[in-house]
Each structure stands twice: as C-alpha cells, then as structure tokens.
Amino acid sequence: MEYTELDELGEFGLIERLTADFPLHNVSSLKGVGDDAAVIGHEGGKTLVSVDMLAEGVHFDMTYTPLKHLGYKAAVVNFSDIYAMNGTPTQIVIGLGVSSRYSVEALEELYAGIRLACERYGVDMVGGDVTGSKSGLVISITVIGTVNEADIVYRSGAKPNDLLCVSGDLGGAYAGLLVLEREKAEYVANPSMQPKLEGFEYVLERQLKPEARKDIVAMLKDLGVKPTSMIDISDGLASEILHLCKASGVGCQLYEDKIPLDPSTVKLAKEFQIVPSVTALSGGEDYELLFTIDQKDYEQIQKMASDVTVIGYMTADKGIAEMVTPDQHVIPIKAQGWNHLRKENSSDDSCVTK
Amino acid sequence: MEYTELDELGEFGLIERLTADFPLHNVSSLKGVGDDAAVIGHEGGKTLVSVDMLAEGVHFDMTYTPLKHLGYKAAVVNFSDIYAMNGTPTQIVIGLGVSSRYSVEALEELYAGIRLACERYGVDMVGGDVTGSKSGLVISITVIGTVNEADIVYRSGAKPNDLLCVSGDLGGAYAGLLVLEREKAEYVANPSMQPKLEGFEYVLERQLKPEARKDIVAMLKDLGVKPTSMIDISDGLASEILHLCKASGVGCQLYEDKIPLDPSTVKLAKEFQIVPSVTALSGGEDYELLFTIDQKDYEQIQKMASDVTVIGYMTADKGIAEMVTPDQHVIPIKAQGWNHLRKENSSDDSCVTK
Question: What is the ipTM of this complex?
C-alpha cells in the first residue's frame, strides 16, 4: 500500500478527500461542508452545542488505539453530551490538528470511524478545519443538537428524595485501559511479545469504542419519564455525582453495592488489586447516563431494569455526598477523575484512587 | 506576581475561573457554561456553525504573540466566517489544549482577549472544554451565528459580469508577520537587541489583532445590496478568488493595480524585496471580506468607496482566473496561501511567492 503524505494534497485537497463521503441525514442540515459556515435550521426547537477535545498522549495512546476506533469514539463522546441534555445530536463540525507524520490514509481511517458513528447515530458532519500541529493529533469535535424546550434536562434539577439512576455498567472503560497499559508495558520490555487481549473483549470495547446511550433517552421518553437532572459519565461516577449535587444544591447517598459492574470488570480490578467500585467511581469514560428521577417514576423505571440501576438517592444535605459501603460504613465521595492538567501526564494511573 | 500552576486548580477549577466573567449579550443564549451542552434559541432564523483551530508554532509564535491578542484574534477570525455568510455571530464554544508550562494567569490573559472580542462583537461564550496537550497551546473555537434564510450569501452565487469587491486593504497582516519574524531573528542572533517595532504599528496590529468586518455586512444591508457570493480572506486573495470561482462555476479577471494596499504595506514589501501585490495575493490573515455584486448595485457600492474597492469582475470562462498587470500582462492566479501541512513548518516563508 502506498501512503500519501499530507503536503501532497495540501489543506483544501485534504479536506475535500476526507469530507467527500459524508451523506447528510437531517433535514435541518441545510448546507454542510464547503463554505465559511454550515447552515442549520432548527425550527421550533432549541439548539444544543457542546465541544470535546481529545489530544494524543493525553486522551489516547497511538500504540494501541486504532484510528478508526478513535474517530468513532471522538464523535460518540460528543453525542453523549447532547443525550445528557435529553436532546438529539444532529450535526458535528471537526477541528483537526495533525502532524506531518500522519499519512492521508491514516486520517481517512480516522474519518471512517467518525463517519460510522455519524451513520449509526443519524448525525451529519457539516464542516471543520484541518491544520498542522507540532505534536501528534488533536481532535476537537463540536456537536450541535436539537431539543424541545420542555424536554431539556439540566444538571441542576435534582430534588431531595429523587432517586439516583445510572444506565448500563461502569468501570469497564477503565478496566480496558488497565489491560492495554499492561500489555503496552510488556511490549516495551519485550517487543517480541504478542499482546494478550483474548477474554478482555468487553472491557477493551468499552475503552476503545464506547457507545452513547441514545436508547436510554428514547426509552425514558417512551415511558413518559423525564429525569429531574442528568449528566453523562466521562470523568467517573464520583465526579459526576458531585456535579449534580453542586448544580442542584442537594446532597447524595450512594450505595456501593448497587453500583453496576460487569463481572469482567470486577475480575480485572481484583487482578490489578483495585477495589472494584473504584473503577466506576474514578475510572471515567463509560459514557453511561447518570440521572435523577422523582420517586413517583420508580415503577416506570423498573421497566428498564435491565438497562438502568437505582444506585442511591438525593438528600437535602447540600454539599454532603456520601457512599454507604456494604458493611454500613459511610465515606465521603471525592472526585479523582482524570486530571489532564498535571505536570506529568503519565497516562496510566491518573484516575486510580489512593 | 505569583503564578498558579494548572494542576493546583484542576480541570473544573480552571474552567470555573476562566469562564467566570463572561456576561451573556444575546437573548438566544438560553444556557451558557456549566452543563453538558449550551442551549440556544434561534427562532425564525437559520443557525450558522463554523470552527477554526489555531496551533502554537503553526499559526502563532509565542515569542512575539501577546496572549490577550491571541485570544482576541482566535475569536475574531471565527466571527469573520459568520460575517462571510452575511450572518451575525451570537455564541462561541472554546476547545483549549494546554501544556503545563502555561500558568493559570497566562490562560486568563488569553480569555481576557476572547472576552474583549465577545464584548466588542456582542457574542456570548457559552461553553468549552479545557484539556492537557503534549506541546504548547491549541485553541479550537466553534462559532454559532444566526441569519435569515433570504439573507444567506454562499460562495457559490457569483455570476458572469458580477463585480469583484474587497473591503479594507490587503497584505498588511503578512507585512506585520515579516517585521515580527525579522525582529525575532535579530533577537535570536543578539539577545541584547531591542526589537524595532516603531513605525510599523498598522501592520503589526493587522497581524496580531485583526478585526472582522461586521461594519461591512451592516453597511451592505443598509444600502440594500446583497452580495451574490462572499468569503473572508484568511488564506490570501488568490486562494479566496479561486474558492469563489470554483464554487460558483465562473472565471475571474483581477486588476493588479486595483488591489488596495496600505502605503506601509507597500513600503515593507519593497524593503523585503517582495512584489507588493503578493502580500495581498498570498499573505492571508487579513480577514477582509471578498464578495461579488450584480452590476446594477455598482452605484450603491460607490457609497462605500472608502471601505470597499472593486478589483475585478467575474467571467463565464469557468476555471480561468487571471490577473491583469498594469502593463497589460495576463497571468494565471495561483493559490500559495498557508500550507500548515508541510513537513517543515518553518513559519516565516510558507506564503511567500517564488
């Protein structure tokens, strides 16, 4: 296979090639790529906007991240922000900073992943900017969404006694990262080693190719349940609970034994000598939805029992967020989360609890 | 002055501090910073979206770029894209990648520049993402704007015999860059030298703190002139003319002696032994508006003679864009523009003609 260097195409040639095959799905996408701005028509609804930036060496490690997966993930994590507002993502624009060590074909892989995510979620890519970068790859995706004003769910609407719910299971993305970092370390020590990834498919997919919970938003709507507050889990359950508490001016009691964990996540946590719940509390990148509902909706939410778990409840004790352990110890919830702003950006342990 | 390291605040602390003092100006900014997405209500109009990414060492050199100016410029170049659609910018979201060698105070300077631009142009900062970066600063701003459908001006509407017009004067931003690069080179050779910047104020401001032509869009509207096509000049007059020609399926005849150049730009070009018009054709970053009008609007546009120059006309010769020199030579227009995707990103001569 021949590789094309970026400067053979130039900026506009590259943009044309990367954006050539992005069909538009939404009637609101009036004008996509190819002008100074895209044109969007969101009649009747409100427009939602959010941006996420991913940087090589900080959010992803090219040693073990396939570019197509990376593109998929970069798009999906943005869609997740719109679902967390109870809205529908409709368009994205892509800001891409790229160093010359990437080939055109490598970037096409990245865009193939973005395209796949757009197809699966019915989102249109309508514009962007590609530029040079002195170091590696930087992907900044801005997502536009739409929502009826009455449907918007903010972080700030949780009330005392509301039930705290989470979709899916947590900690898997972090468990996957632990496996990838372990295999990378072994490979560095002994480059003839083959990585051992069999049996870890679930957590690897959680890390490398997460999904956004479009289905949860649809199910809640079908059941007539409007969450009182909602956020997506990008930084870890602990951090997101604190966000909801702070924005809503409430407290929270979380039950450790209610936190949904996949068996493979639990097994890996033990292997790495980490308390399993910590993968959920501090791991992040699960992109599940964390939300609160009024107690009157408890029966309805039971119908989603295979997808949603009640893990605690909100209290009037503003500023007090606590976790109750199975042996009835009560410990304060603290955010560890990712801290990409540390002096040392060693990527493997920044979210492990002490 | 004490400097605060980024990791002292952490991601959320930093975002809170940087975004604390951004008042909202537009009724359409229903919800700004502080949730998973911002909420915007553009009833009746269409929404415009555009993104621009600026990377340290590619688009700006921290040796001579004050951070406040950089923030101002990063915002303004985005507003310019919305004006180029004949729209009004209303909101921005900021993606910021930053290495730990920046202090919190340095980023506050950057945001002070963004805030000033937002104030001057009546735009609201409604969200963003701050993350680590392995090298320097990356700023990705997405701008949202609004426009009535009937007012939208695409690149694709130019017709044969339309007049080609440009606002302000061109080449100044590039002339400013030449001065800055010269003084930097002298400083590197002899660090005790003081940079000689006196007398170059106009071109330095064009480079370091450009403005977007909000006033031109307003004047055209007041005069009842709707351009048939429009683009902003970020990559150089030559490149933008070719964009209009390609999108509209027309040709162009440009008159070299009509290209508006400031006397200080001409003087500097001669000093650097560059043909003066080349600073306009290939320099870029002037953020003036390049647009075409129907000949029937010629009289009206004369009223803007101090701000707008007719520099040529469009032809039916699709694909043929030429410049007529004062001695009646006809030479094809070729885009040099910036090429940030080159292997060597030496920043000083990538847009100089051969």
Answer: 0.88
